[in-house]
Amino acid sequence: MIIEPRTRGFICLTSHPVGCEQNVKDQIAYVQSKGKIEGAKKVLVIGSSTGFGLASRITSAFGSDAATIGVFFDKPATEGRPASPGFYNTAAFEKEAQAAGLYAKSINGDAFSNEIKEQVVNLIKEDLGQIDLVIYSLASPVRTHPESGKRFKSVLKPIGEVFSNKTVDFHTGNVSEISINPAEGEDVVNTVTVMGGEDWKMWMDALQAENLLSEGATTVAYSYIGPEVTKPVYRNGTIGAAKDDLEATAFKITEDLKTIGAKAYVSVNKALVTQASSAIPVIPLYISLLFKVMKEKGIHEGCIEQIQRLYSERLFGGGLALDEKGRIRVDDWEMREDVQAEISKLWEEATTENLSEIGDLEGYSEEFFKLFGFKVNGVDYDADVNELVEIPSIQ
Ligand code: NAD
User: Fold this and answer.
1) Of the four listed, 150, 163, 356, 395, which is most buried by Cβ atoms within 10 Å?
2) Which pTM does this prediction carry?
3) Cα 336 to ligand 1 centroid, rounded to whole Å
């Protein structure tokens, strides 16, 4: 079929298998161009099909020749209906890993459930024995709790008071004022239940209970801080409460795993266009200004550049460079004073009329479509493609 982008709000309903494959190949080529990393050899990535998780899986496999198990929640294609991009990404990743002689198996299902944890535990027992590195990179709006069966929904709201600021509809370039009502009722608790650290801890407990973590194993989860302008809706909002919980969980995991000398870290990453971040009001405007400033300064990074740097310089490069709260920081370039000062100035100036000039709206939009395999260089979008791609290890 010929597949075109069909968007609804911050979601694209279609995705392109060849474009997704090309994205994965480009990320692999980037990692290979940076040379080998003396990193972990047996890696589990939870949330491995898109964004930072996919970049982590690619960096482990093609930077360190690691065997990888990936867990994600994606839709396969049906006749005439493309799969979700994470499905195509994973199919492409496995194909490339196999061609390179690397072990790669994937499990598609709800990572929050006991059932998927059990499947992963059994797979590790059968195939890898023990894991050296666990990357926890889930971004989900909902979680069904494995014990109570209750379904929790996360929300992106400020806490305490209404937050009003500028935002942009990145499809139209329309800059407008948005007001977001504060969290109410169980909003904060629910968001912490979905995006906090409880599930990360459950994964680590499940692995440790079966002796599947190697001596001195490492686990890393991803977080975000961001600038003043997004603070009320991000870091001081409901999602920030969840990130506080995630960050506190790192210490609990390290404590509980001290008998095997394992360490849990949170890495604070840069703001990037991913499916998750496109959903947060105000953030797209911030990102379009951030991209402009960072590109002009020659310090722009995407997911793969961020994770390659995280691995090669921080995790396996001898320089974790933890901040005062014990976190790894690869948002250091985003948070540089000169970068933030320029963004603050541009923020005041930004209007519908000037945003395409003072911000990188085009870059934002391009990145958004690339998430779904569209607007990727070298792909012929007029060509008939087979939407029914399969993931080799899942057939
Ligand atoms: P993403 O949406 O690109 O990826 C999320 C992954 O989680 C996908 O592989 C998806 O399949 C998987 N997933 C979601 N629900 C699942 C479930 N129930 N079971 C199994 N898999 C499931 O997200 P991302 O932007 O790469 O975010 C990953 C992490 O990085 C998050 O913790 C996020 O807060 C953090 N982070 C994001 C940014 C950013 O700007 N995007 C910045 C810093 C940190």
Assistant:
1) 163
2) 0.98
3) 25
CA 214–ligand 1 middle distance (angstroms): 25
Binding site membership of 110 for ligand 1 (Cβ less than 6 Å): yes
The fold adopted by the segment(s) 7-148+193-280+301-335 is Rossmann fold (3.40.50)
Does ligand 1 have an atom closer than 6 angstroms to the CB of 225? Answer: no
Residue identifier of the C-alpha nearest atom 31 of ligand 1: 139
The amino acid at 48: S
From the list 30, 222, 224, 234, the catalytic residue is 234
pLDDT digits (tens, 9 = 90+) for 223-274: 999 999 999 999 999 999 999 999 999 999 999 999 999 999 999 999 999 8
The two structure tokens encoding residue 362: 């085009």
Distance CA 10, CA 204 (A): 33
Q: Is the CB of 84 under 6 A from ligand 1?
A: no
323: which DSSP letter?
A: -
311 assigned to active site? no
Ligand 1 center to residue 243 CA distance, Å? 13
Contacts of residue 81, Cβ cutoff 8 Å, sequence gap at least 6 = 387
137 lines ligand 1 (CB under 6 A): yes
The DSSP secondary structure of 83-137, one letter per residue, reads PPHHHHHHHHHHHHHHHTT--EEEEES-TTSHHHHHHHHHHIIIIIS-EEEEEE-
> Nearest to residue 21, comparing CAs of 379, 306, 316?
379
Q: Are 388 and 380 in contact (CB under 8 A)?
A: no
Chain segment 32-88, per-residue pLDDT in tens: 999 999 999 999 999 999 999 999 999 999 999 999 999 999 999 999 999 999 999
- 193 touches ligand 1 (CB under 6 Å): no
The full set of domain ranges for the chain reads 7-148+193-280+301-335
Pocket test of ligand 1: the residue of 44, 140, 266 to mutate, having most ligand atoms within 8 Å of its CB, is 140
Euclidean distance between CA atoms 129 and 139, whole angstroms? 28
